[in-house]
Amino acid sequence: MRQLFIITLLTLLSACGSMPKHADIRSDDRPTIYIDKSGIGSEIHIDGQYLGLVNKDRQTFATTPGKHDIKIISPSGTITKKTIFVQGNTRREITPNQ
Questions:
Q1: How many CB atoms neighbour CB 70 within 10 A?
Q2: H-assigned helices in the chain
Q3: Does 77 or 97 have the greater pLDDT score?
Q4: What percent of the chain has pLDDT over 90?
Q5: Any idea which architecture 28-98 has in CATH?
C-alpha cells in the first residue's frame, strides 16, 4: 500500500515538473516605428542612436518592445521629439513637425 502511494505521488510530481512555456518574440514580431512620408530626407535617432536617413524605401524601423525616445531632424533643421511605448508586433506611426 505504501509503495502504491509513493508511486502515485512520484507520478503526480513528475507531471507537475514540466518546464513552463514561454512566449518567444520572433524577429518578425518586433514592434516597428513608421515615419510618415513628410519625414523623407530626415535623420532618425532612437534612444540616442542614429539610425540613418528616412527615404521612400526606408520609412519603417524595427525596435524592441518598451519605451523609446524618438528624435527626427528634418532637412530644414526642424526637430521632432517624441517618447513612445511599443509592444510586440505593433506599428507606431510618427508624423514629424514641419
A1: 20
A2: 2-16
A3: 77
A4: 60
A5: Sandwich (2.60)
CA 75: distance to chain centroid?
A: 27
Q: Are 72 and 96 in contact (CB under 8 A)?
A: yes
Domains of the chain, residue spans: 28-98
Q: What is the pLDDT of residues 26-50, one digit of tens each?
A: 556 889 999 999 999 999 999 999 9
What average pLDDT does this structure show over 46-67?
93
Measured distance CA(40)–CA(21) in Å, rounded: 42
Give dist(CA 97, CA 72) in Å, integer. 9
Dihedrals φ, ψ of 66, to 5°? Answer: 130, -165
pLDDT given at position 5: 75
Please give the Cα distance from 53 to 66 (Å, whole number): 23
Q: How far apart are CA 85 and CA 29, in angstroms?
A: 15
